[in-house]
Amino acid sequence: MTSLLRAPFAAIGRGGRTLMVGLGQWGRMVWEAIVSLRDVDVWLGLTLRQMTRVGVDSVPIALFIAMFTGIVLALQASYTFTGAIPLYFVGVLVGKTMMLELGPVLTGLALSGRVGANISAELGTMRVTEQIDALETMAYPPVAYLVVPRVLAGIIMFPLVTALAIGVGIAAGWLTSLQLLDMSTYEFVYGLTLFFQPFDVTFAMVKTISFGFVVTSIGCFYGFRTRGGAEGVGRSTTQAVVVSSMVILVLDAFWAITLL
Amino acid sequence: MAIELRDVYKAFGSKEVLRGFSAEARDGETLVILGGSGSGKSVTLKHIVGLLEPDRGEVWVDGLRVDELDREGLFELRRNVGYVFQFAALFDSMTVAENVGMGLKRLTGVSKEDRLRRVEECLARVDMAGYGERLPAELSGGQKKRVGIARAIATEPRYILYDEPTTGLDPMTRAVIDELINRMKAELGVTGIVITHDMESAFRVADRFAMIHDGKQQFQGSPDEIRSSADPMVRAFIEGRPELIEEAE
Ligand SMILES: Nc1ncnc2c1ncn2[C@@H]1O[C@H](COP(=O)(O)OP(=O)(O)O)[C@@H](O)[C@H]1O
Ligand SMILES: [Mg+2]
Hints:
With about 260 residues, chain A is an all-alpha fold. Chain A contains nine helices and no strands. Chain A starts with a helix and ends with a helix. The complex binds adenosine-5'-diphosphate (ADP) and magnesium ion.
């Protein structure tokens, strides 16, 4: 009986310990990446290539998501307001939600699937086929060579991709308002700018930079610690996506609590 | 200068792989390490370049204690050590030539022309001339292995570690690789360690043998000594007759 009662707590304890150990190892890798910034000759050229991969290649999926989100936001706003609230509030809602919440978070989640999975699968394969060991034996520091370019690319490109997504989402909301809601451009733009504050941009920036950092560093982390062949690669890829998606949502709440 | 492992212990979790293993590759000689698969041969090699740290014991290369070197010291040491990985470990996003040139790029004072020339030379040495522009995915297992060897010798290291360099190759290529190992020793004075299961190759390249069993050194000695050894474990291995072990036990 006591063991039955104890079991869930033991499980929580184990989970907590695993979490703490994982956090510690991840922190060590991040610290090493920061120290590795001095190996400029190693990471500089590679970062440009990663920026193309992380950024340009992610644009289609990010814009696809943003476009449909914009359309739905506009329609749902007008449905909710049911004439009780002036229609230009559709502009307010589309603008604010895209900018503060859905643009950054949906793009972050999409990119954790796209970029995070890609990174952990690639580095995981390199780990199990001993390519990372090979780098080390040729005196290339693996963290400077593999982690730094990817994390920097994430930090730089996530905000750019998200900005594009926000733009497209708002444009989609605007077109929807014109075509389906019988609104004028004047009304939409009036709503869009009514409650706009420059801080909104800062807020979105902080979020997306942190998401870029989280997705890429977690992808690298799980890739690096991959063990056990193709199966191991599959496992770390899944873990990278699940964990970075969860961290994105937690961070999202964290920024809302601390910055708003 | 020599390579020496002294009483090395290494466990992964509860799995004790090395339990006081010792071996020595003398200056300018080739040491062949024998042992069953999973006995810790690759783990041993990784200790020599600091890819793994021993739980206990000492690893000496070039008069330096590898297990106590800092990052800079390790990178310095690794410039003098070529490592041939068991499954080649070629960078699959790079061409064959880029793979072979990777180590040279890290050395200062090697011009681009010199680098390209050395890459061609090394590829020719392993009979892979003309494959420079291919990607590793387009090569057979044996070809990858040969490129892996070309990559390890490109910087003309003073030490070369060969992890099963001939496993899975055809007899002709095996002979070519064995000769290459001997030539690296004769021409460049390389101190080498070769892991192999292939006794024919082993006797072609070995100056000395060490055998690992149960995480410890089962045997160390010259080719003549191993031929005349009465140890059933050694006999079973070199004659390929596992029943000898059971008879002994
Ligand atoms: N990084 C590692 N983590 C956990 N176990 C390992 C690791 N490297 C090797 N091992 C284990 O150590 C044992 C010896 O491996 P290895 O040296 O590769 O054998 P071999 O003699 O065939 O080269 C194996 O059981 C292997 O699973
Ligand atoms: Mg092995």
